[in-house]
Amino acid sequence: MSTFRNFVVVSVSAAIAIPNGYAIAISNPPGFALDKANQTYSEIGHRPPEGNAQMGKLSNQGSFLAPHSVQLGRNPSAFTLAQAQELDPSKPPLAPVQPSGRTAIPGFLEPNPNPLQFPTRPEEVDIEVTQPLTLQQAIELARRNNRDLQVAQIQLERAQAALREAQAGLFPTVDLESVFSGGRSAQTELSIEAQREAQRNVPPELRQPIADERTNTSLNTSVGINYNIFTAGRVQAQIRAAREQVRINQLEVERQGEQTRLDVSFAYYELQRADEQVRISQSAVRNAERSLADAQALFDAGLGTRFDVLRAQVQLARENQNLTAARSDQQTRRRDLARLLSLPQSVNLVAADPVALAGLWNPSLEQSIVLAFQNRAELQQRLAERNFNREQRRVARSERFPQLSLFFNYNLLDVFNDGLGLADGYTAGARLRWSIFDGGAANARVAQEEADIAIAETQFANDRNRIRFRVEEAYFALQSNLQNIQTATVALEQANEALRLARLRFQAGVGTQTEVIDAENDLTRAEGDRVRAILDYNRALATLQREVSNLPATAP
């Protein structure tokens, strides 16, 4: 605590009291605090990096980073494009803080390193291993193996190579050319034949010798140096544009990483839902079998009717159908999660985490909105795109000005059969190129880049509004689903009690089979509603974390 000052510990707790033994308790351990002097919402025990007002992000290598320090804005409603520039998006991101530790992953879950390989025999896609997997393990596997994240990383490496190419324009170019040639020309052949024809009628003693060197062999080597000394800012603008492109791709890696984490979380929750639905359907089948047994026993004793037995049989058949559909959906959810994680073809997954609240969200709605504005990669991407288009506009404008370069060429020439030695020479000078009239092409390119600048600014405003709406939507869903958990838990207990009483009434002969079946259906729905409320809460929490760049929730 010595590294912080003026802290007021924020401790949030909530308890949902349910009659007859049901309870959901959520408490926030004293791990988060508010620095009143600096308006900083921080995690106790983690000192913010010097000069870093942003939340933790995804590293360039794709690792998920938990943010440790968040700078809260003082007026979230007045966050504009001009204020966003104060975040200095033109600078490269600060070095990320590496996570304290990674989740252990079994080695056989790593996919084949060759992305082009695919199975060619049916036995290669047989499920040989069913592996329980936690949510954190799934996220870690996605960080390593997700193909979309890998593509984003490769595109970043390509942009870095393009930056090096643009930086090469600051240096002179040196070209070496050497040509070795040999042959004979048709002109030489015609000249020899003409000399022979002219001396055909001349006495041999008076004929002049004719040179018969029809083959000409030579070596021509040249070295050229060219250096652009004035380009009207074109080279510098191209370098700055390439840097902005690198930043755009860095932010894309970050965005894709955050989206991958959300997609994996959603797929995992869907698998949990499918697992719970199988469990609920199995329970419904057992209840239907018990009701059928009760109806059959009363019928055999002469106290029931054939109609009650038939009703129970129909209900059992319906529940068996629901169980079959639930198992099919379970297998689909397992394969969907395996797809996102790029698992080997022979591995199937089982959700190891029980269905429970994933955590508690502490920041207020207003704080959440400001956090999203400050940390979302999409907004910073729009600013980087605007900066990129500005530099491209400078490149287009430079084409309207003269370009000056220096050149030097050194040449060596040797004709082997001319009886002469090696000869050399050089040329040096300056070259001025000025496109005086291009039909308005340069101005048209400038106009295109200005339009792209306006598009980036407009998209920034649109993304800002969309992000706020998504934060509010997730925040409201989080609050409502927390209330739904309480309601669904009460309803589940009531449905259990109602089914117990309905069976007692039916066995005593004062109730009907219809009442029992209705109570069984109510219990099935109540169990499903409670699971759905918990998972909807977790989805809303994961969405809210994504909207503010994966700010972690506190443990329940």
Task: Describe the structure concisely.
With 556 residues, the chain is α+β, with helices and mostly antiparallel strands. It contains ten helices and twelve strands.
Tags for this model:
elongated; 12 strands; alpha+beta; four-stranded antiparallel beta sheet; single chain; 556 residues; Outer membrane efflux proteins (OEP)
Report on this model:
The chain is an alpha+beta fold. Among the domains are: 1-53, no CATH class; 174-230 and 401-433, Outer membrane efflux proteins (OEP). The chain is built from ten helices and twelve strands. It has helices at 81-85, 135-145, 147-167, 186-198, 234-300, 306-341, 365-375, 377-398, 441-508, 513-547, and strands spanning 7-9, 13-17, 23-27, 32-35, 40-43, 69-71, 129-133, 173-183, 216-230, 347-351, 403-415, 423-433. The strands form four sheets. The protein has a four-stranded antiparallel sheet, with no helix packed on it. A four-stranded antiparallel sheet has the order 8-9-11-12, with no helix packed on it. Strands 2-3 form a two-stranded antiparallel sheet. Helix 3 runs antiparallel to helix 5 (234-300), helix 5 runs antiparallel to helix 8 (377-398) and helix 9 (441-508) runs antiparallel to helix 10. The longest helix is centred in the C-terminal third of the chain and has 68 residues, at 441-508. The protein is elongated, with a radius of gyration of 38 Å. Mean pLDDT is 76; it is low at 1-101.
